[in-house]
């Protein structure tokens, strides 16, 4: 566009603003067709989560090319639980015309992680060990898991009430009952237990203390 044309557009800007205020003119808008009861809904009237979902799908369809890399940062921020569980399916469908593409998603959502397609995705965990970062990869083999199982067994965030923790505790107690001496196994469990809050669970706290004493007595 020439310099003269840009100047002409700049001169028209005050007139366009006045026309908009007087409702003689409006910028184009996007509307979503609902059912017979809802009619049409303008994009700006949708919730932030609905806008997020539609924007993501539209951008991927419009711009993704075969073999491209897409990076998404914490998409769960404005999404409810149901949308988090369907997010990866939305991304996959939106990339149907861009074969060979890869998607890198940074997330803390167990709901989003549990919906990752089996055999087509991986979890990369990055942990800080003093001044160094350690990365490990886990194949997505937990489609349909509950959020507590994902938190405990994938994201390594323990909860005293989780089924995964209770099952591992039972396994450790059986190991001790059989006079087991697997120090690494005991240390790994106690490391997780150290991050738990046992307030209001005195009996469980005593059990963990007994396991710790057993570990300390091992030669």
UniProtKB/TrEMBL annotation:
<dbReference type="InterPro" id="IPR051396">
    <property type="entry name" value="Bact_Antivir_Def_Nuclease"/>
</dbReference>
<protein>
    <submittedName>
        <fullName>AAA family ATPase</fullName>
    </submittedName>
</protein>
<dbReference type="InterPro" id="IPR003959">
    <property type="entry name" value="ATPase_AAA_core"/>
</dbReference>
<dbReference type="InterPro" id="IPR027417">
    <property type="entry name" value="P-loop_NTPase"/>
</dbReference>
<dbReference type="Pfam" id="PF13304">
    <property type="entry name" value="AAA_21"/>
</dbReference>
<feature type="domain" description="ATPase AAA-type core">
    <location>
        <begin position="39"/>
        <end position="114"/>
    </location>
</feature>
């Amino acid at each position: 566009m020439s310099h003269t044309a840009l100047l002409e557009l700049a001169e028209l800007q005050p007139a366009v603003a006045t026309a908009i205020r007087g409702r003689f003119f409006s910028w184009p808008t996007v509307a979503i067709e609902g059912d017979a009861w809802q009619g049409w809904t303008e994009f700006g009237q949708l919730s932030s989560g609905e806008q997020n979902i539609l924007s993501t799908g539209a951008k991927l369809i419009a711009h993704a090319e075969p073999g491209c890399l897409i990076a998404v940062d914490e998409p769960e921020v404005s999404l409810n639980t149901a949308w988090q569980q369907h997010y990866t399916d939305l991304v996959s469908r939106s990339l149907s015309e861009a074969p060979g593409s890869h998607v890198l998603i940074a997330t803390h959502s167990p709901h989003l992680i549990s919906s990752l397609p089996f055999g087509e995705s991986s979890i990369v965990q990055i942990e800080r060990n003093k001044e160094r970062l350690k990365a490990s990869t886990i194949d997505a083999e937990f489609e349909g898991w509950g959020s507590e199982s994902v938190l405990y067994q994938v994201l390594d965030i323990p909860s005293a009430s989780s089924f995964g923790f209770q099952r591992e505790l039972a396994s450790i107690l059986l190991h001790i009952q059989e006079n087991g001496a697997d120090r690494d196994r005991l240390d790994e469990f106690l490391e997780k237990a150290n991050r738990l809050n046992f307030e209001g669970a005195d009996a469980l706290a005593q059990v963990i203390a007994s396991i710790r004493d057993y570990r300390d007595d091992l030669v």
